Amino acid sequence: MAIQSDKNAYWSANKRIIGISLVIWFLCSFGFGILLRPALSGIIVGGTDLGFWFAQQGSILVFLILIFAYAFRMNKLDREYGVDE
After folding, report:
1. What pLDDT does residue 1 have?
2. pLDDT of residue 2
3. Are the beta carbons of 43 and 32 closer than 8 angstroms?
4. Quick one: angle between helices 59-81 and 2-26, nearest 10?
5. Helices marked H in 1-85 — which ranges?
6. Which keywords are on file for this protein (predicted)?
7. For residue 23, what are the CA distances in angstroms to 30, 59, 81?
8. Residue of 9, 3, 1 lying closest to 77 (CA atoms)
9. What is the dihedral of CA 60, 65, 69, 70, to 10 degrees?
10. Can you give the residue ranges of every domain in the chain?
11. What whole-number distance in Å separates Cα of residue 58 and Cα of residue 32?
């Protein structure tokens, strides 16, 4: 029975990490790049406004950071539950 509760806790933590990552990615890509673009138009980054920057490059960079953060966090989680390689 303890093994089943460990599996449930592991997958619950995994789903929480994925959910947080998806929310961050959604906010950066859809939120800042599309919905909040007019509000961010006065802030200049790299010669263009911040909303355009998020739509073109920012969301991609955030996605790459999220990939590495997810891999780092999952390696830590795997070690915690003894399922690392």
Report:
1. 42
2. 53
3. no
4. 170
5. 2-26, 50-53, 59-81
6. Membrane, Transmembrane, Transmembrane helix
7. 10, 12, 25
8. 9
9. 10
10. 16-81
11. 9
User: Per-residue b/e over 4-36, b at no fewer than 16 CB within 10 Å?
Assistant: eeeeeebeeebeeeeeebeebbebbbebbbeee
Question: Using only C-alpha atoms, what is the Rg of the chain?
Answer: 18
DSSP codes, 53-72? HIIIIIHHHHHHHHHHHHHH
Largest CA distance in the chain: 59
Q: Which of 62, 66, 61, 55 is nearest to 19 (CA)?
A: 66
Question: pLDDT per residue over 37-62, tens digit each?
Answer: 888 888 888 888 888 888 888 888 99
pLDDT at 67 over 80: yes
